[in-house]
Design brief:
246 residues, alpha+beta, Beta-Lactamase, 2 domains, six-stranded antiparallel β-sheet, elongated
């Protein structure tokens, strides 16, 4: 039921479980009594998850610590890529870096835990912005000032939305020397059980060291890692960005 996009009939549940309708009905009746599931439509006789499951899920997620749950997957990502991996959360129009794992490469980022950056000029920030509706992005930036730190920094709202649309199509964000002249970053979002983007992770490289094969494998690794962390927070989607939502 959690993975279904609509409420289910007895027949659909029975078929999915591959058990007789009579046995399925017994299970349904027990779950209805415990309010684990509820009747969605009396006429079509369909069922959906009940309030108890929402309460249990909310309680579990509220006790989940982002830094703790993300540490293992981030450490594995850093080990595989030998790059520095960051975890950041949104705060108004900026990202706050809350975790950092240094890679084994010679390049070590000077960005520290607690540092902040405008979201529009970082891969980690754009990964978060791409998960927001365009109206929400406009409320954060609109036609306001876009401070250019490098010649590649996005200059205005139109450029930002165009970049975010590319991010949504790819499934991950790219920062190509937009925040720091010599850095190239990949970013991917982290979602929770409400399908809300709550954080993001990034891989940081020196632009001259990013080989063609890494531009293929790093996006796969970072999106897999972000999805693994998102699952810990109850996210059930199959992809990060659904174009029709923006």
């Amino acid at each position: 039921m959690a993975n279904a996009k609509k409420s289910l009939t007895l027949t659909e549940i029975s078929t999915a479980l591959n058990i007789p309708k009579s046995s399925t009905l017994d299970i349904i009746q027990a779950l209805l009594e415990k309010e684990v599931i509820e009747i969605d439509n009396l006429i079509s006789k369909t069922y959906k998850l009940g309030i108890v499951m929402f309460t249990l899920g909310s309680a579990s997620v509220s006790r989940t610590n982002l830094q703790v749950e993300a540490h293992g997957p981030m450490a594995e990502l850093s080990l595989k890529t030998k790059k520095t991996v960051f975890l950041a959360v949104p705060k108004h129009e900026r990202v706050v870096y809350v975790s950092k794992l240094e890679g084994s490469s010679a390049m070590q980022s000077s960005c520290a835990i607690g540092d902040t950056n405008p979201m529009y000029l970082t891969g980690i920030g754009k990964a978060i912005l791409a998960g927001m509706a365009d109206a929400e992005v406009r409320s954060l930036y609109g036609d306001g000032e876009y401070v250019k730190r490098t010649p590649q920094t996005l200059a205005n709202y139109a450029d930002l939305i165009a970049d975010l649309n590319k991010t949504r199509e790819r499934g991950y964000a790219i920062d190509d020397r937009e925040g720091v002249e010599f850095l190239y970053c990949f970013g991917a979002p982290i979602y929770d059980y409400t399908n809300k983007v709550i954080a993001a992770i990034s891989i940081v490289s020196i632009v001259d060291e990013v080989r063609a094969e890494e531009k293929i494998c790093y996006p796969q690794l970072i999106t897999q890692t972000a999805m693994e962390i998102s699952r810990k927070f109850g996210f059930t989607g199959s992809k990060f960005y659904n174009r029709e939502e923006y």
